[in-house]
Amino acid sequence: MGRLPKSFFYFFFSITLIILYGCATVPKTALAPDEINPSLPGTGSDPARKDVLRQIKERTEQIESSPAWIENSYEGLRIRSLRNVSSHEYSFYKSFLDNGTVYIIVHPAYYTFFNSERIFGPPGMNAVERFLAEPANNARMAVLQAQERRMRDFLEYKSTEKKLIILILPRGYKNFSGYAYRGGPDEYTRFINDVTNESDSVLYLESRSPMRGYLKDDDLAALIDFLAGVNPDRILIGGGYIGRCLENFYVSFTDDFGINGVYLVPELSDVSPSELNSSLASRLLAPNGDIDNIIASEAMKHDVYRVQNIAPKVFDLK
């Protein structure tokens, strides 16, 4: 029997989702905009979860809520560029691997800062928290909020745990016409500082442009050299958007580094609003307002979004 066309899988998957979920209503979440979800991706049955959540809460209340910290958080990133890490330090960063795993996150929270309107609110909230405080009047908005929440929570949790994370931030975003906060206080820098907690375990590089996930050649070479020195068992990649900047990075990285041990993570991969219609959004939502991880994984594997040019290796955190 010949290989079935991709359209068959799309049709089959859509019918399956309709059977499972029917006409879903917008789920409600009881979480406040600044409250960390205790079931966030990648924590599993972590016995230290309560202690990590306590540390996050204490830092938020005792440090990051102060006017002085908020004012200074706009002034520059408080995490280190990977380009400034020497080969002598690789063993130091190897100690931050998460049971052999390093996480690479491409363009975190892209929707809030580059696809949404500027949202004003109290200075105690960063821009993502202000977006999460907006009413979700439809399933599409609920998915966009759920994506931003899970990434915010994941970065907060893993940076507090001191697990190795490499952020790929959009180069030149401050002058990018699509940056919602251009010309004002640098809300993206404030957000990154908020969620990475000045952790030694978090590094960053910049993508070639704000709208592409590719790295410049010298940055890609530095990343590959770093990873060869740290020697992780797994490289788990997430961020935004599926089939867009995320795919740019995955394809260019695996072309040079190789595919062995490199995966995209559906639980940490965001769908662009351009691919997110109300029907698909309803199917992606779990009853508690989170993304349904099983549905998200199947959607990525079968290119339900119709925007992926490759079939990536997929790793499910749960």
What does this structure look like?
Strands 1, 2, 3, 4, 5, 6 and 7 form a seven-stranded mixed β-sheet that branches. It is built from twelve helices and seven strands. The model is unreliable at 1-24 (pLDDT under 50). The protein is globular. α2 packs across α7 and α7 (139-161) packs across α11 (278-284). It has helices spanning 6-21, 49-64, 67-73, 90-94, 110-115, 127-132, 139-161, 187-196, 217-230, 245-257, 278-284, 293-301, and strands at 80-81, 101-106, 165-169, 202-209, 212-215, 234-240, 262-270. The longest helix is centred in the middle third of the chain and has 23 residues, at 139-161. With 318 residues, it is of the alpha/beta class.
Oligomer: single chain
Structural class: alpha/beta
> How many DSSP-defined strands?
7
User: Strand portion, in percent?
Assistant: 5-15%
Low-confidence stretches: 1-24
Give the helix proportion (percent range). Answer: 40-55%
Radius of gyration: 19 Å
Give the topology string: H per helix, E per strand: HHHEHEHHHEHEEHEHEHH
**Largest pleated sheet:** 7 strands, mixed
If you average the pLDDT, what whole number results? 90
Total helical elements: 12
Distance between the termini: 34 Å
How does the overall form come out from the CA principal axes?
Answer: globular
Q: How would you summarize what this structure contains?
A:
This protein is an alpha/beta fold and 318 residues long. The chain is built from 12 helices and 7 strands. The two termini are 34 Å apart.
